[in-house]
């Protein structure tokens, strides 16, 4: 016998979970959301928001240093950390709780676990157990957790993970970072700008940001080295130890060592499926929870998964997009409505989600890289352009360095992917997202005239390079 019967139960109140709640309640269904920590999830308190708050001063330092006549004062790290604290509401989720209550939806504090068909058992911090039964759907939105690589001595050395870096109280003078992906690059640069004077990245692969076009990683590596961040490529960490005085020593595969006050491990994330009761639906919980394009677990009539847990794209905006699809699908199915609407299927993940890396230079990209497009068998043509030659970019500051690359499907004359690297390119990517997802033919794109003198004139230059 359930303690609570409700239309929809969502496990995890991160951005993905909260958006499902929003959509199903708007559609007139009742909903309970289970959260074991803070309503708002990783993104609001430990990931996107604090990291971007810590990166913003570095962005401005870059801007100011590129314009003659402006003077850069010393960075007051404590003021930056205070603004970060404000941005994460001092780890208080009161605002989110109020929002959930107002929807209205029911927030159940505690650990959620599948315990039967359409059934979630919530165990509160005080041991209280509540059994909730969903009439229509259970949605898993528990996010992801950092991967801990199997390196000798690593766990004993008590390394930092992304949460420690984003909620930092005292910036370490010497920082070692394991990994060369997004978290590693963003947090290395943020902490370096706030006083981590000796920062070293230990990167297994041959480039930073291994999933984007190589030129973007190269531009970033160049900027890192110019600012004094040490990048060690093609190298493995073999052993880690922490001495009594707190110094962490990382022993590398070439016999050298890196000494630091803290070691940040940023080697990817895995879906948060531990103790979620996935065996109830015959899943082993070893990888992401696979879903179809309606976000439902194949073979189940009632179980859905959105956000990081399904492994499609570990990005807040894509988790929220999946949540909109999922919430609307659940509502349509509950009401017996037709599902013949494009908004009821996730196609956005398939095109390749847009992503911005908030480093200096920023990197923004959408769609396929050249390599991915070729591997998929497209008839590819590539155009590239040096963004320093765009008037709008030149006016942003002296020595502007940036590059853009477009991957064209020659058969259909549409864009398959676009990548920008350079200061301020975050805001360029949405135009690219529209062009790529809407498959705008290049000869139509030609008539979308960018304003002068904006950096957006890069679009004109790319099309001219193409031959229009
Ligand atoms: C340092 C860092 C920076 C990032 N920056 C960006 C960025 O700038 N832009 C971007 O798009 N993405 C960014 N990301 C990725 C982004 O944070 C995630 O994609 C996003 O948080 C995923 O949302 P989610 O709702 O799936 O999961 P989460 O945000 O992880 O939320 C899951 C929630 O479920 C709860 N939960 C877990 N298990 C249970 C359970 N059994 N019972 C009850 N509750 C449970 C958790 O406590 C949590 O609140 C960043 C990630 C990191 C690590
Ligand atoms: N601005 C943003 O949108 C943003 C910012 C931060 C994080 N995120 C998301 O969070 C997710 C996690 O980020 P991340 O940087 O942890 O993962 P990632 O997958 O981007 O990078 C992981 C890095 O660790 C390396 N690595 C993996 N195993 C290793 C090992 N055993 N030893 C040494 N190196 C190893 C990889 O080669 C890679 O360089 C990403 O998928 C990203 O989408 C997004």
Overall description:
It is built from 15 helices and 21 strands. The chain is α/β, with parallel strands linked by helices. The chain folds into 3 domains: 4-46 and 88-145 and 270-344, FAD/NAD(P)-binding domain, CATH 3.50.50.60; 155-267, FAD/NAD(P)-binding domain (3-Layer(bba) Sandwich), CATH 3.50.50; 361-466, FAD/NAD-linked reductase, C-terminal dimerisation domain (Enolase-like, domain 1). Helix 1 runs parallel beside helix 9 and helix 3 runs antiparallel to helix 4 (77-87). The mean pLDDT is 97. Flavin-adenine dinucleotide binds next to helix 1, strand 2, helix 2, helix 3 and strand 4. One of its GO terms (biological process) is 2-oxoglutarate metabolic process. Residues 354-459 form the Pyridine nucleotide-disulphide oxidoreductase dimerisation domain.
Total beta strand runs: 21
Bound molecules: flavin-adenine dinucleotide, nicotinamide-adenine-dinucleotide
Termini separation comes to 68 Å
The tally of domains stands at 3
Kindly state the mean pLDDT as a whole number? Answer: 97
Task: Determine the CATH topology of the largest domain.
Answer: FAD/NAD(P)-binding domain
List the helices and strands and how they pair.
Layout: E1 4-11, H1 15-26, E2 31-35, H2 41-45, H3 48-65, H4 77-87, H5 94-102, E3 106-109, E4 111-116, E5 119-123, E6 129-140, E7 144-146, H6 162-166, E8 174-178, H7 182-193, E9 198-202, H8 214-227, E10 230-232, E11 237-242, E12 248-252, E13 257-260, E14 262-265, E15 269-271, E16 303-305, H9 316-335, H10 348-351, E17 355-357, E18 362-367, H11 370-375, E19 380-386, H12 391-396, E20 403-409, E21 414-422, H13 429-437, H14 442-445, H15 458-466
Parallel strand pairs: 1-2, 1-6, 2-3, 6-16, 8-9, 8-14, 9-10
Antiparallel strand pairs: 4-5, 5-6, 7-15, 11-12, 12-13, 17-18, 18-21, 19-20, 20-21
Bound molecules: flavin-adenine dinucleotide and nicotinamide-adenine-dinucleotide (NAD).
The site of nicotinamide-adenine-dinucleotide has 22 residues, from helix 7 and strand 17.
């Amino acid at each position: 016998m359930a303690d609570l019967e409700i239309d929809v139960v969502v496990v995890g109140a991160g951005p993905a979970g909260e958006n499902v709640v929003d959509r199903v309640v708007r559609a007139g269904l009742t909903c309970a959301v289970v959260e074991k920590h803070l309503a708002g999830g990783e993104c609001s308190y430990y990931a996107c928001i604090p990291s971007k708050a810590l990166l913003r001063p570095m962005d401005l330092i870059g801007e100011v240093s590129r314009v003659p006549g402006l003077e850069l004062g010393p960075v007051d790290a404590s003021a930056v950390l205070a603004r970060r604290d404000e941005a994460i509401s001092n780890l208080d989720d009161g605002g989110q709780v109020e929002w959930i209550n107002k929807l209205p939806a029911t927030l159940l504090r505690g650990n959620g676990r599948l315990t039967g068909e359409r059934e979630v058992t919530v165990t509160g911090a005080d041991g209280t157990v509540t059994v909730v039964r969903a009439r229509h759907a259970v949605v898993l939105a528990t996010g992801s957790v950092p991967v801990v690589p199997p390196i000798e001595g690593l766990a004993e050395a008590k390394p930092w993970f992304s949460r420690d870096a984003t909620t930092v109280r005292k910036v370490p003078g010497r920082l070692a970072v394991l990994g060369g992906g997004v978290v590693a690059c963003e947090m290395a640069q943020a902490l370096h700008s706030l006083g981590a004077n000796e920062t070293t990245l230990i990167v297994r692969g041959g480039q930073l940001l291994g999933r984007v076009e190589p030129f973007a990683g190269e531009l970033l590596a160049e900027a890192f080295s110019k600012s004094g961040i040490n990048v060690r490529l093609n190298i493995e960490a073999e052993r880690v130890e922490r001495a009594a005085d707190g110094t962490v020593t990382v022993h590398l595969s070439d016999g050298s060592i890196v000494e630091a006050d803290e070691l940040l491990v940023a080697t990817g994330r895995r879906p948060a499926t531990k103790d979620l009761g996935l065996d109830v639906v015959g899943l082993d919980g070893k990888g992401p929870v696979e879903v179809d394009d309606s976000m439902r677990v194949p073979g189940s009539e009632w179980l859905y998964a959105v956000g990081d847990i399904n492994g499609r794209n570990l990005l807040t905006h894509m988790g929220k997009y999946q949540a909109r699809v999922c919430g609307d699908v659940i509502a349509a199915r509950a009401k017996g409505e037709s599902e013949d609407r494009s908004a009821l299927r996730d196609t956005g993940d398939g095109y390749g989600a847009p992503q911005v890396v908030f480093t200096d230079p920023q990197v923004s990209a959408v769609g396929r890289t050249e390599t991915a497009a070729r591997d998929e068998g497209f008839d590819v043509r590539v155009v590239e352009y040096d963004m320093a030659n765009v008037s709008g970019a030149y006016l942003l500051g002296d020595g502007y360095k940036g590059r853009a690359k477009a991957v064209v499907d020659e058969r259909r004359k549409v864009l398959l992917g676009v990548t920008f690297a350079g200061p301020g390119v975050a805001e360029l990517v949405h135009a690219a997202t529209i062009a790529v997802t809407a498959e705008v033919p290049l000869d139509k794109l030609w008539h979308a005239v960018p304003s002068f003198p904006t950096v957006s004139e890069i679009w004109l230059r790319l099309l001219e390079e193409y031959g229009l």
